[in-house]
Amino acid sequence: EAQVTQNPRYLITVTGKKLTVTCSQNMNHEYMSWYRQDPGLGLRQIYYSMNVEVTDKGDVPEGYKVSRKEKRNFPLILESPSPNQTSLYFCASTPEGGKSFLDEQFFGPGTRLTVL
Amino acid sequence: DQQVKQNSPSLSVQEGRISILNCDYTNSMFDYFLWYKKYPAEGPTFLISISSIKDKNEDGRFTVFLNKSAKHLSLHIVPSQPGDSAVYFCAASADTGRRALTFGSGTRLQVQP
Question: What's the pLDDT at B62?
Answer without folding.
Answer: 98
